Structure formats: C-alpha cells, structure tokens
Amino acid sequence: MSKIVYPTLDLFIYNLIEQSGEIEVEINKVYENYWSNLPERLQQKHFSTEINHEDTQRLDFNGQIRYGVDGCYSRIMFDDTTCLRYSCSLEKEVDISQIPSTIKELKDFADLPNANKLTDNLSSGQLSPHGFLGKTWMVSGWTVPDSSQIPTYQTTEDIASRIYKSLIGKQHQHQQKGEFLGATVWEMWSSDTPKTSSLTNRRWEGIDKNSHVMVIFYQDKDTFGEAARRYNAWRSLFYCRHKIIWAYEQGRELKARLAKQLKQNLIDTHNNTTLLKKGLGELKKDLQTNSKILSSYIQDINLLPIQQNTVAVNLDNYEKQRQDDFPTEKFLAEFGQIAKNKYQVQLEKDYLSLNPGLAILENVTSTIRGMVEIEQAQRDRNLNNTVAIAGVGLATSQLASAVIIAQKPPEKCTEKCPPFFLTEAFVLSIAAGLVASFLVWIILTLFRQK
Q: What is the C-alpha separation between 107 and 213, in angstroms, rounded?
C-alpha cells in the first residue's frame, strides 16, 4: 500500500488585534502571555525548543515520542491582524490508510492560545468573538507508492475526506479539486447557512471560519521541499482570503441589522392619524426611540463602505499574491472571481438599497420632533392663557372687593357674625372676578381664531 513520508500538518490562525477597549487590552495580554510562556509549556511536554535565529518570532521544537517529531510556531502581523502558524511533522512513513489518525495526533500536539477565561465558547486559537477571521489547516507530505498499488482519484478523495473529518469533527459540505506543483489539491470547507438553501447557494455563503482544509500529497521529496518554500506565500494568501470572507460576512450582518431597524422600528408615516392621536408623552417617547434608531443606523450604514473597501483592498492583494506565486492554480483563481463578482457586487447593492433608509428615518424623526414642538408650544400657550385669565379674575376680584368695602363698609355685628364667604362684599367680588375672567377668555379665543 502507498505510504506518505514526513506527514505534515500546518495551521494558520488569523485574529484581529485591536488596542481600544478594556476587553481588547486583556485579550492582547492573553496572547502575549501565551507566546512568552510557550517554550516552557513545550518543554513540559518533553519537546526541545529553540528561537529561530533568522526569525525571532519563530519558535522551533523537536522531540521523540515513539518517533521523531519536529515543527515550529511562528507569528506575524498583517496590518491589524496577527497570524499564528503551527507546523508539526512526523519523521516516518505512514500507510496512506492511517494518515487521518496520524494527522489527528499531530493536531493534538498543538498548544494554542485560550481566551475562554475572558469570553466563553471560543474555538482553539480564537482570541475574541468578533475579531476572529478564521483558520486554515494544510496537510501535506510526499508519496512513496509501491509497485502493487498506486493511489487512485477515488482513494485520495476518500483519504482527504477522512482527514477533514479527523480535523473538523464532521464531514465537509463543499470541495474543489486543483493542482499545485503537479500534485492534486483537495480544498474543503463547510457553511453555516440554513439547510433549506441549496448546496450551490451555500457554497460561498456563511462559510464556517473553522472549516477550511487543504490536503496536498506531493510526488517526491524534492517537490515537497520546493513547496515548503511557499509557506509564507500560502500564509499571505490565506490571510487575504479570510479577511475578504470576514468583511463580506460583516457586511451581510450589517445589512440584516439595518433592514430589521427599518422594518420593526420605523413608524408608518402614511398613517398620520396614528401620530395625530398621540399625546405629548407618547410623541416624546417615539422621538427618543427614533433618535436612537437614527444614530445606530447612521453608524451602521457608514460601516458598509468600510467593509466594501476591506474586500476591495484584500482582493487586490490576493490577486497580486496569486499571480506572483500561484499563477497557474485555477482553483485559487475561482475564489478571486467569487470575491469580485459576488462579494463586492452584493455589498454595493446592499449599500445602495439601504442608504435611502437614512433619509426616511431622518424625515420621520424630524416629523415627530416638529409635532412635539407644536404640542409643547400649544401646552405652553394654554398654560399662559390660564395664568392670564386667572390673574385678571383675581385682580378684578380684589379690586371689586376693595371698592365695595370702601363704598359700603360692613356693619358692626351686634350678635354672631356670618362667615366671610357669605358676606355681600365677598360674593360680589367673586362674581366680578368670574365675569372678568370670562371676558378675557372670549377675547383670547377670538384672537387665536384670527
């Protein structure tokens, strides 16, 4: 049976590294502590470690666990993103049928950062819920076929599928076949989109960030050595791929959130009777609600062009990297076409369809604000009129009382005096005040109608 020599597992993990916010600072500390403590942890697992002299951000390790094991950890920054690479190989020949279990063993050797103390439900190597771009597993080695059995297309496809399941824990949904340096490449991944969608529609939608796997078995040792010199190119290419998919998915989330805001929180401007029936308190509440929605909508709608630009910039870098290092690999060119003809176009359509919603929200908010101002002005005017009417009535009553008492002083009581509110002066003064208030009310009413 054919054997795979020097089976190798490479893992590329991409996380955004942000400096703003208390949680982000703590996440960065977790990552730095992980890196500084990594040599000690590997030594506890009986691996020898050594900092690479040519790259200080690379830690080489090797050991003997029933067979020779060697590999490295390395990290590099791409703009605002850190890439952590784990590479591990076995110095032995493995029957091709045993490769899935061997790769699973190499996976278990990995010592990856763990940020679950800060945030729950993170996958291995994921530093934050929203800043995780994704990861790619790459399995490689070179074949030594015997004279009796050379791997067939069906055999290598079956082995690739089993390798995928050993790494991801489930069967892949999508795959494509390509060639690189004369070797067959199996690229596999899965989607998070609903099962009700067709496989064709789900192929490039809702891609699971943890599901990307590539399997490449080269024809001989020399080809494997040449491929090893391309790992930095793969690392850059995978970064662009994950950043494009991440920006596209961020844009789709923004679109869903913006559409929901318009659908659920926008007051029906065509139903004016609903607004007219509302009191000042309800209108103020609506104004506050719509102001918050408007603020959130402005923020989200302005993020859409940012995601468009992220896709455009990284697509350009992806194509440059592909042309420089993988000019004949058609399966890599397909993703570039998807990013150009699907992701970019979809984000542009989303922005054009949702941007008018901003004007709608602004108009609704302005309408409610105007109604609040009118209602408030009406209340203030009614209050002023009430104060004026009451003031005139009170002043008239006091004046009338003073005149009546002056003209007709009350007689001295020989017996028990009646209560003050039964006196003639009080009754006449109250009547005078009421008449004066009524006249003022008529005058103000006639004045308001003009």
A: 13
